[in-house]
Amino acid sequence: MPTLTTLAQRHNLFLIEDACEAIGATLSTPGQPAKPIGSFAHIAVFAFYPNKQTTTGEGGMIVTRDPDLAARMRSLRNQGRTASGHWLQHTELGYNYRLSDIACTLGIGQMHRLPEILARRETIARLYHHHLASETSLTLPPLDIPNLRISWFVYVVRLTADFTPARRDQIIHTLEQASIGCGRYFAPIHLQRAYAEFPPHIPPPHHRIRSLAHHRPPLLQSHQRIPAPHRLRHPQAGHTAYTLNDHP
Ligand SMILES: Cc1ncc(COP(=O)(O)O)c(C=O)c1O
After folding, report:
1. DSSP letters along 53-117, please?
2. How many CB atoms lie within 10 A of CB 19?
């Protein structure tokens, strides 16, 4: 993030931080105290869908230090009304993106529990690591990264390059048969059909990544995520790891 903020400043760019999977994570830079992820850019977004560390059932949150941006987003969220304006007056066309009071109550309750939730998720990530450490066909996520406090969302394991997509899918199927939630992780955004028309115009660095994905599909398309919900119990984490270890 510090590199991106420097780059954005140099080129006068507007930076939006996607912190949807990172609530509670912190990053320290040399000589500076740790800063929360979501506090580096002009705007940061967080998601509260039920699979996230904290949830409001649906929806999310945008944060900014810029009072003008905050006022504009509040207005757009509220069908174009201004904060001081009358309920029946719309100063611009907006949306109904309001989070209901009921959803907010749930979210506030979750915020109070955030330290406990993050600690529990970290315990589960460490349990997975402990059980899977000797599995040579998996690359595990790093448990500790210097200067970073990780907020565990999902635990992504990467199959080594000799796995075919068919074999990967077979493993996912085996886990699902054992009632273990598991799935492929996101393909890079430029491989999504919604962006299919853009690649010819994408500048060189993205092209390089795309060709890497095409020539070595297992590298970028063999990530799979296994659950790290904070309600998972030790034996369940062991069962997941055992099933994954025992893949066909
Ligand atoms: C990194 C990231 N950004 C954005 C989103 C979108 O969040 P939502 O559609 O739940 O608001 C997600 C959802 O999983 C995500 O993981």
Report:
1. SS--SS-EEEEES-HHHHHHHHHHHBTT--SSS-TT--SS---B-PPPHHHHHHHHHHHHTHHHH
2. 24
The residue nearest atom 5 of ligand 1, judged by CA position, is 20
List domains and CATH numbers for the chain: 2-112 (3.40.640.10), 114-245 (3.90.1150.10)
Ligand 1 geometric centre to CA of 86 (Å)? 33
Q: What pTM value is reported for the model? A: 0.80
Q: What Rg, from alpha-carbon coordinates, does the chain have?
A: 21
The string of pLDDT tens digits covering residues 131-169 is: 999 999 899 999 999 999 999 998 988 888 888 889 989
* Dihedral pair phi/psi, residue 103, rounded to 5°: -60, -40
How far is it, in rounded angstroms, from Cα 169 to Cα 162? Answer: 14
Structure tokens given for 86: 């009358």
Q: What is the pLDDT of residues 121-130, one digit of tens each?
A: 999 999 999 9
The answer, yes or no, to whether any atom of ligand 1 lies below 6 A from the CB of 18, is: yes
Pocket lining: 80 vs ligand 1, CB cutoff 6 Å: no
